[in-house]
Amino acid sequence: MLLKNLRPVSKTHKGDEITDIRIVDGIIKEIGADLKPSKDEEVKDFGGAYVSPGWMDMHVHLREPGFEHKETIKTGTDAAAFGGFTAVACMPNTKPATHTRDVVEYIIKKAEDTPVHVHPIGCVTKDRAGKSIAEMADMKDGGAVAFSDDGDPVYNSQVMRVALEYSSMLGMPIINHEEDLELSRPGHMNEGKVSTRLGLDGTPGIAEETMIARDILLAEYTGGHIHVAHISTAKGVDLVRQAKKQGINVTTEVCTHHFDLTDEEIDRQKFNTNFKMHPPLRTQEDVDAMIEGLVDGTIDVICTDHAPHAIEEKEVEFIYAPNGILGLETAWAITNMRLLQTKKLDLQQLVEKLCYNPRGILNLPELKIEEGAEANLTFFNTDEEWTFDLKNVRSKSKNSPYLDTKLTGRALGIFNKGQLHLNELK
Predict the structure, then answer these.
(1) What average pLDDT does range 324-338 have in this prediction?
(2) Cis link prior to 65 (omega < 30° from 0)?
(3) Is 215 a catalytic residue?
(4) What are phi and psi of 416, to 5 degrees?
(5) What is the pLDDT of residues 306-323, one digit of tens each?
(6) How far apart are CA 321 and CA 397, in angstroms?
């Protein structure tokens, strides 16, 4: 296959030169200007679009096994491919929980025929109950790339200490859902002026920040690697920033909605449950802090926390709706509009947070655009205007706050597992 007229973006490419890429048996065979197709070679002209090493979302919920009415591995990876992701790491709040090697291997097996690599994250504790450590080493041998009880924090500090000590021997991170449950419940949105005005119980930022502070101290004490999931508060970002300056092994991620939307949307959208997630949408000050953290390197990764819910689960009163929204299909457009077009970050910096950093944190091989390398690629543009409506949702669920929103920038497709997968708008 010959891919024509692409602008590579990587650690060594700035996206300012147009080139062609020849792929043979899934390997980049040749890179150069104006390459001539050989006999019977398939040719695809991208007309000057960008190409980067394949993106990875290290925080998604594929729901299988156990909650296939929300999402399946097949529909979730279809959504990922549409969003430009060649790999995802899926959270373990399945049924049964991903707390044993057989469940890890089941997920990997189910994903073999999808266009996206799926990397399971195993539980920290058995059944995500927070009491006893799960079979970490066995899950690693089965293919798990990290450990988390996501959806719930590892609440017991002694359990978290042991988990960090054990996972550090395995060279793997603990990804914690940072929440002090006694401070946060029964909150339905961010605690602040908007929640007071609307009369809703709120979740204060300090519920996230106190748990981040605890985990940073435990990481310092044990030498383990703590990865702060879906950070959302300004003080939380500053805690991570200071910890990194002290040399503590802490990394973090931010979801696209947390550097785009604020809690004012709950009022503006008249309690639309597609704006209910956890951590909740915060204030403009917090949104600005997320962007500042991305710019100065405090925040390592852009992710989505893609969390599908069936229509009937979301079409209830706001306080009864489950937390979570879709994110895979719209991630690049939001990133492009909020970070690239505003000149907060350039293309190389965005690819670092969408490709290199998540793979580095999870100890996965670095991807390259060079001759002899595996062809694992994402194709995208930055100027195409399009509308994310129901017919363009690839997920099995529809719970996105961006439905019927005009967006700018689109993932055009991926090349992965030896095949080109192009995205067509419907």
Answers:
(1) 98
(2) yes
(3) no
(4) -155, 150
(5) 999 999 999 999 999 999
(6) 14
Question: Which pLDDT tens digit goes with each residue over 131-144?
Answer: 999 999 999 999 99
- Strands 55-60 and 43-53, sheet pairing: unpaired
Q: Are 364 and 238 in contact (CB under 8 A)?
A: no
Are residues 376 and 325 in contact, defined by beta-carbon separation less than 8 angstroms? Answer: no
Instruction: Please work out, in degrees rounded to the nearest 5, the angle formed at the alpha carbon of residue 423 by the alpha carbons of 422 and 425.
Output: 145
Helix axes 284-296, 234-245, angle to 10 degrees: 20
Check: CB of residue 290 under 8 Å from CB of residue 299: yes
Assign 297 a pLDDT band (cuts: 50, 70, 90).
Answer: very high
* Domains in the chain: ranges and CATH: 2-51+372-422 (2.30.40.10), 55-361 (3.20.20.140)
- Residue from 305, 346, 383, 404 carrying the catalytic annotation: 305
Alpha helix stretches (DSSP H) within 203-283: 206-222, 234-245, 264-268
- 């655009």: which residue's tokens? 369
What pLDDT, on a 0 to 100 scale, did the predictor assign at position 39? 87
Radius of gyration of the chain (CA): 21
Q: What is the pTM of this model?
A: 0.97
pLDDT score recorded for residue 363? 98
Q: In this model, does residue 346 exceed pLDDT 90?
A: yes
Q: Residue 227 corresponds to which amino acid?
A: H
